Every structure is written in structure tokens, then in C-alpha cells.
Amino acid sequence: MKTSIDCAALAQDLDQLKAATMAKVGQQDADHIRRVIRWQRVFEIGGRVLLMLGFIQPVLWLVGVFTLTLSKILDNMEIGHNVMHGQYDWMNDPNINSKSFEWDIACDGQSWKLVHNYEHHTYTNIVGKDRDFGYGLLRLSDDFKWRINNLWQFFTYIYLSLLFQWGIAYHELAAERVFWGKKKANRQYKVSPEQLKQRFFSKGGKAILKDYVFFPLLSGPLFLWVLGGNLLANLLRNVWTSTVIFCGHFTGEVQTFKPADCENETQGQWYYRQALGSANIEGGNWFHLLTGHLSCQIEHHLFPDMPASRYQEVAPQVRAIFAHHGLPYNSGRFSRQYASVAKRILRYSLP
Amino acid sequence: MKKLFQRISQWIAQNLFHHQSLSGYAQPLIQWFKPGWRSHAWRAKVVVMQQVKADVIELELEVAGSWPSHQAGQHVQLTVEMNGRLTSRVFTIASSEQLAQQQRRIRLVIKQYSRGQFTPKLAEFINTGDWLNISRPMGEFTLPDTASNTTRPVLMIAGGSGITPFIALLETHLAKLQQPVSLLYFAKKDQHLFNEALASMALSHKHFSYQLLVRETDGDIANHLDLDDKPWVMMCGPAALTSSTHKALDAVGHNDDLRIQEQFQPTSQPLQSDCDKPVTIGLKLQGLYQKLTLKKNDNLLSQLEQQGVAVSSGCRMGVCHQCQCVKRSGIVRDTRSGQLSAPGEQLIQLCVSQPLGALELEL
Question: Is B40's Cβ below 8 Å from some Cβ in A?
Fold first, then answer.
């Protein structure tokens, strides 16, 4: 990878920052994740109960929908995503670790961990290696050949947002060509396609059974209230997560790379690629929490296994290091970043 | 019936709350009412905590009503949250079965190793009134039924902090035993523990006698063994003591079946810096156990791959956690930071871990 930046010095600065921050990780971070998990439980149970009280007062149902949405967002983002990255494995807690954690989403956690942590975080934004860039559905740079269906890709994006959990679930399987596509004879699978397929149906089935059969049935005559509430909560969660993730990865400034770029890559070059391949969203503490601190996408890409509770703390220092080395730090308000994403999707829908 | 209930609760946990167990799911809520409650262990409250010697700390714990009481001589795994990390070590219970059954109390007498990562920090992280966690009682170092029903004498041999199970055994069984019971207790000069307890037991039980010994002045164990009555021999202490005891017993043809031994290791194993010396790894893979010999100067992942072990791997740089596994015990070095791990159970990534001593892994 050719760059005018002194990657070795960049690596030294970032490594130093990481070591200094990791040395501070302790009780405060454990308390943070435990507190979030506790409130997630309160919101989940509270939300499911409130949905059933809709027959007394419909407003309660509406509150229930938002509470359940909040629970799913916390579970997927601040808890699930970060725990499955191994950020809290040092706690030695049998309930909070990347080996056993499973989340409230259609995508099987262990399959996701496999593809996301390996493919996306190792080969970030390398076209052809990191399939998260555009998810194989959207054309977001000139690295991809224009096709006719890119014309209406903004609508594809809307569908993807609404069905994001299923998009993710399917996406993890597409990598291994589980359902169709060319199977390479000598391909080394980390998990067999059969196992991935079994996990897809098993986890997806559970997701449907839970929200659209079991809990509605449990509520008896209130079947439709609960079914509708769950559906809405899932949709809201899908739109929120997809929006946050798009703002972190696909704003106008985010760059792509070629497979050759990562051959014999040094730690510094890897950091450099992470820096140019992500974008931050600015906001208050609550906003950061609800994005699972993926609003600090740059910090997350640089230090994927640092507890997310530390991202806000290191962000100003990362920014200073970037400035010192002449690297751009892509950060902006939510409205600005979202407009930038929308523009990019529209721009590349044309040749 | 209980099995069926368990299966239903597990089905609900896994299918409706995407968690391995309902108790694990509910744990954060239960902790609101019961501080320190954990789905994987029992609760215990620190009732007494005192420094009995400069490097020995005594804990008296009030244990949960549901805790299955121990047999004298058994140990428990004690778990303390230290700076956010659940840290566990194994300690022998140094109190009687009666105390546990009747008053729900157990006593741990813990030697603090200055180089350790757990024992010297106990006072920093726990206070009287705090809640800790203990495992179910474990271990086989108990008095066999056949030993309590005969007239054959019992000879106890303790070294250093290996005295703890004998205190539990004596407090539990001494009143019932008819035959002579004697204890040879080796420790460094002025480092013998439980002096008062031993003295008062010898006073109230005519069939019990003991000697406090110091190896430097009193010489080897062989000088002190009286094996004429072919006693039961129970021993617990450092390897040097138990091996010389076995040698002395072999010399007089003392029956192997009459020996009961507790494996005993200090909690902090000294580190060896020599890189070329091979280390032995115990590896549990899909239920199968195997032993492997590895080198210290290379990471675990590539060494396991070289030996043909089916491990999954990804980035090979500590980012993706594909090669993560459970380290049951042993010390590894993180190749990125050079930091040494704690000796207890934790998750490690094989690609960035070098073995520094014997390890037990579960893939």
C-alpha cells in the first residue's frame, strides 16, 4: 500500500494509546456492561408486559413497543456486538463472553462472529474480501461494475434497512455459498456449510417462533396486539441499527482498498486502512449508548476488542494522533453523516 | 420430574430469551435483591476476615442454605470480583463438617504469596460483609469409612499450608475415632498455624498427639515416622515432603493402599524463563483428552496446527477471536503486550498466546 504517511510512527502512537487505555480497563467497565445488561432485562420484560396492557389503554401498548425496541437495540448493539467482539472476555464472566453470548436477532451469533470479526475487521473495506462493503447489494464505489439494478438501489437500501436482521443473517451465509453459487473444491471452511445452514434455520426459526408465535399465543385474546407490537419493535430496531451502521461505514469520505493493499501489511498500514475506512457520528452519551458506541466507528475499527465503554474517552486522543500524522478524521453530526450516506447511495446508482 | 422441569426451563431460556439458562438471564435482576448472586456458583458472605500472620489471612464465610456441605478434607473454588474480573482460586476448607451443616459456616485459611495475583490482593478487594462465590465442594482427600471403623492408627503428615485439610478432618472426626491419631506438621520456623487449636484438641482428646517440626532443625520426615502399627498415612504438602514420605514408607514396605495423598501446589507457580525447555499441554477437544509437548517460544495456535490439532483460526493477530479457547489453568504470555496471564481459568486467544508452563486447555 502506497502512502505518504509514516505508518510505523502511526502504529507506535496508536499502540501506545491502546496499551495505556487497556491498562485502565477494570471495575468501571465491568460495572458499565453489567448495568446496561440489567436495564436491557428491565426493558425487555417491561416492554413485553406493556404490550399486553394495550387493551386497557392503547398508549401503554405504544410505550411497550418503544420499550421493547430499546431492549432489542441495547441487546444487539451495546451488549451483543461488543460482547461478541470479546471486549469483555477479560471479566471471566460465564454469562458475559464472546464464546457463549447469543443475541435477540435473526442472525446466529456464532456465525456472525465468524464472518464479521474475521472478514470485516481483518480485511476492512478491501473490495473482494470484505463483503460488508455494500453487502453485495449496493454499489458504493467505482470498484464495482455498474448494473441496471443499481438504478433503483436506493429502494433496495430501504428494504435492506427494514429487514436488516434478515439481511445480516443471510449475508453471513452468502460468504460460504451455502445456498447457491460456485463452490470452490479446495475451499477451507471454518464451519461446514451444513452447520451454517442448520444454524441459519435454527436461529431464524427461533426468532420467528418467539416474536410471532409464542409470545402472541401466550397473551391469548391479545394475540394481535402482541404480534403487531413485536413486529413494529423489530422493524424499528432494524432501521436504527442499519442507519447507524451505514453512517459508520458508507459516508462520502470512506475509502476502499484493493486486495493487493493488504498483502504483507504492517500493523501501521492496517491502522491506516481502518482510519480511512470508517466514520464517526457525534452526539451525547445517550446517543453513543444507543448506537452501541458504533458512533465511534473509527475507534472501534482501530481497537475492536477494547471495551466500547472506553471509545468516547480515547476519541479525542485518536483525533489528535490522526491530525499529527496528517490523516483525515471523518466525523460529523448525525444529519450530516446520514445525508452523506444517502448521497453516496444515489451517486453510485448511476454509472 | 426435576429433569423435565429443567428441560422446560432450558428450552424457554434458549428459545425465548436467547440465553443458556433462565437463571443466567435473570441474574442481573436477582442481584438487585441478592447481591453477589450468580447462576454458576453459590453465594457466601464474609463474616470474619483477619490477618492471622503477616502472610496468612483467615476468612470465615456464611454459606448459602442450598450449598451442599463439604466432607472434611475437601476444597472449594473461591471466586472474587477483582477490579471487574471474576478471579478464582482453590482453597481447602479448614473447618468441620458440623460447623457447615449446623451454622452454615466455613473457614478458609489462606497463605498469601507475595508474587501471586490473587492471595496478596484479597484484603484490597474484600471486606467483612461482602458477598463472594464458592463452588460445590470438591476433592477426594477424605477419611475413608474403612479407616474410621478399625483400630488401625491414623498418621497425618502436613507440610506448610497443607495443614488446612487436617484441621477440618480433626475437628470433624476426632471425637468419633477410637484409635490413636497423630500429626507430624512441618513448616518454616515460627510459621506453624493453628497452634492453639491443635493444643486444645490434644488436651481434650487423649488419643491425639502432634509434633510441630522444622525441617532444618528436626531433619527429614524419615526420622519421625513410627510405622510399627502399620497406620493409615494421610499426607498433604509440597512435592518434596510427599515424595520423601513415600520413599520412607516404601523402605519399610508400608502398604500402598493405606496411603492417602492430596496433590498440593502453591497457588503461584514460579515462572521459568528458559525458552527451550518444552512444556506439557493437556488439551480437551470435543470431549477427548490428550497431552501434547510444545515449545515456549512460539504461539499456541501455530504449534497446535503443526501437531495436527483441528483448531479454527482467523486473523492470526488477535483481532477476530476465532481461535479463542478456555484456559483451565496455567500461565501464558500475550505476544502483543508481553503481559502474563493469571494462572486460573480464563479465555485466551491461541494466536497471541505463548505457553510459559504446563497448561490445561479446552477447545
Answer: yes
Region at A270 (left for phi over 0; alpha for psi -120 to 50; beta for the rest): alpha
pTM of the model: 0.86
Task: Convert the pLDDT of each residue in B105-132 to its tens digit.
Answer: 999 999 998 887 789 999 999 999 999 9
Q: Which helix (H) or strand (E) holds B8?
A: helix B2-16
- CATH for B145-262 is 3.40.50.80
How far apart are the CA of B76 and the nearest CA of chain A, in angstroms?
18
How confident is the model at residue B81, as a pLDDT?
94
What pLDDT, in 10s, does the model give residues A73-82? 999 999 999 9
Domain coordinates of chain B in residue numbers?
1-33, 41-134, 145-262, 279-362
Nearest CB partner across the interface for A121, out of B27, B29, B320:
B320
User: Amino acid identity, residue A289?
Assistant: L
B211, β-bridge pairs: B184
Q: What is the ipTM of this complex?
A: 0.88
What is the third-level CATH fold of B41-134? Elongation Factor Tu (Ef-tu); domain 3 (2.40.30)
pLDDT band at A237 (very low <50, low <70, confident <90, very high): very high
- The second-level CATH assignment, the architecture, of B279-362 is Roll (3.10)
A94, A103, A215 member nearest B18 (Cβ):
A103
